[in-house]
Write a structure and sequence with these properties.
The protein has 257 residues and is an alpha+beta fold. The protein contains eight helices and eleven strands. The strands form two sheets. The chain has a six-stranded antiparallel sheet, with helices on one face. The protein has a five-stranded antiparallel sheet with strand order 2-7-4-5-11, covered by helices on one side. A hairpin with a 2-residue loop joins strand 4 and strand 5.
Length: 257
C-alpha cells in the first residue's frame, strides 16, 4: 500500500497538504545528509533522534518533535531503538513558519494525531474523517511552545574545533586561556567569536552542549547519577538544578507526559 511506504521520496509530490510515514530504526541508525521539498515534522515515541544541519544540532527525545523547514539540508541519527513517525507538509500548509529547525513539545493528543496520519492513505478523501483528523492536527501543532534543545554550531573553524572537542568530551573544563594556545586564536578572539557565531558565550555554549548530551543519555536509559558524573558535575543535585533551570523540570520528570 502506497500510504505505508518507508521511502521519503514517495511523500514529496502527493496531492494532500500532509502525508505521514512510519519507520522503526535500530540504535545508532544514521541517515545521511539530504533535503526535502516539503517541510518535515519528525517524532519518535521512544529513544531520541539527533538532527544536524549547518546551523547546529537538535535533540528530539520522546514527547518532543522537531520541525525541519523545506530545503534544509540535514542528517539524523537514532539514540536507542526508535519508532520514528514523520509528517511531510507542503509549502502552503506549513504548521510552523520558522525558517530554522526548532523543537516543540508533543501533547498526548498530538501524539495520537501524528500516529493517525501515518496510518491513513496519502490520498485520503476530502471531507472525510481522515481530513478532519488532519485539520485537528494543524490546530494542535501551532500553539505549542518551543523547547530550548538546540545547539548552534559555529562556521569559524577555530572555535568549531573547540566545539567538536567539547561534544566529544562534555566533562572537560579546559579554560578559554588554555584553548587559545591550541585553537589558533587569542583568548579575546575566542570570547568575541562565540557570541558572534553561536549567540552564546563560551560558558553558556558548553552548558548547552552538556544539556543536549544529558538528554541523549536519558533517552538511552542511563541513570541520573551516571549522567551527572559523565558530564563533570560534583553531585546529582547540581546536575538536576542545571537541568531544571534550562528545561523547567528535573531529569526524572522530563519524559513524563
Amino acid at each position: 500500500m502506497f500510504g505505508k511506504s518507508e521511502d521519503r521520496d514517495d511523500y514529496q509530490q502527493i496531492a494532500r497538504p500532509v502525508g505521514g510515514m512510519a519507520r522503526d530504526l535500530p540504535d545508532r541508525f544514521f541517515i545521511d545528509y539530504h533535503e526535502h521539498i516539503r517541510g518535515q515534522l519528525i517524532y519518535a515515541s521512544t529513544g531520541a533522534i539527533v538532527v544536524t544541519t549547518a546551523k547546529g544540532n537538535w535533540v528530539v527525545p520522546s514527547l518532543r518533535a522537531v520541525w525541519v523547514p523545506p530545503r534544509v539540508r540535514h542528517c539524523m541519527q537514532a539514540v536507542g531503538a526508535i519508532e520514528m513517525r514523520t509528517l511531510y507538509f507542503d509549502g502552503d500548509h506549513a504548521p510552523l513558519r520558522s525558517p530554522d529547525c526548532c523543537v516543540v513539545s508533543v501533547s498526548p493528543l498530538l501524539r495520537e494525531l501524528i500516529d493517525a496520519v501515518t496510518r491513513m492513505p496519502v490520498d485520503y478523501a476530502l471531507n472525510s474523517r481522515d481530513a478532519a483528523v488532519v485539520d485537528l492536527l494543524f490546530h494542535e501543532i501551532r500553539p505549542l511552545s518551543v523547547e530550548p534543545l538546540h545547539l548552534p554550531m559555529p562556521s569559524d573553524e577555530r572555535i568549531a574545533r573547540i566545539c567538536r572537542w567539547i561534544l566529544s568530551n562534555p566533562a572537560e573544563e579546559t579554560s578559554v586561556a588554555a584553548w587559545s594556545k591550541v585553537a589558533g586564536a587569542s583568548e579575546r578572539t575566542i570570547i568575541r567569536l562565540f557570541p558572534e557565531q553561536t549567540g552564546m558565550t563560551f560558558t553558556r555554549w558548553r552548558q548547552q552542549a552538556r544539556l543536549l548530551v544529558a538528554v541523549q543519555m536519558l533517552s538511552a536509559q542511563h541513570s541520573v547519577t551516571d549522567i551527572a558524573s559523565s558530564l563533570g558535575y560534583d553531585s546529582t543535585s547540581a546536575f538536576s538544578a542545571m537541568f531544571r533551570k534550562a528545561l523547567g523540570c528535573t531529569p526524572t520528570e522530563f519524559f513524563k507526559p
